[in-house]
What we know:
Elements: E1 2-5, H1 10-13, E2 21-30, H2 33-44, E3 57-59, H3 84-92, E4 97-100, H4 106-114, E5 118-121, H5 127-130, E6 134-141, E7 150-164
Helix pairs in contact: 2-3, 3-4
Amino acid sequence: MKKLSTPLGEKKIINLKAGEEVLLSGIIYTLRDQAHKKICDLIKRKKRLPFDLRNQVIYYCGPTPELPGKIIGSCGPTTSSRMDKFTIPLLSQGLKGMIGKGKRSEKVREAIKKYRAIYFLAPSGCGAYLSKFVKKKKVFTWEELGAEAIYKLEIEDFPLIVGIDTKGRSVYGKR
């Protein structure tokens, strides 16, 4: 199992292969449908983004509220294909990694290859388990979106599988 840390530059991910297991540490940002929509609108209007997407990793997740004494509630992945319509603009801004669950469209797979990015799979149905790898959490922006706000998470040894590598190879095979 390979250990990686954010931010992810191309050199860190270029040799990863679809199906490989990794442990990711560092800073990641949660992004769901509403935050994606807002970021894509800012990109379209050439406005300043809430954070620089270059070499960053986003997690398709809407964490639940934490219980007393805990850092975060359940934080499992949401279905990635819902974000496909927003993915290419983010990749064009330098995004290097995405974490979610499930297949991606052929168009997104090709864009991952073009921009030499990576798509990680997080184990689904394991949100409570995954919360153990989150060391810090804070609302980063758009708090009014609730669970769909952007959260900044500090993670340590977060377990992932390479779903689509920088060469466009997918654990799901060709479509």
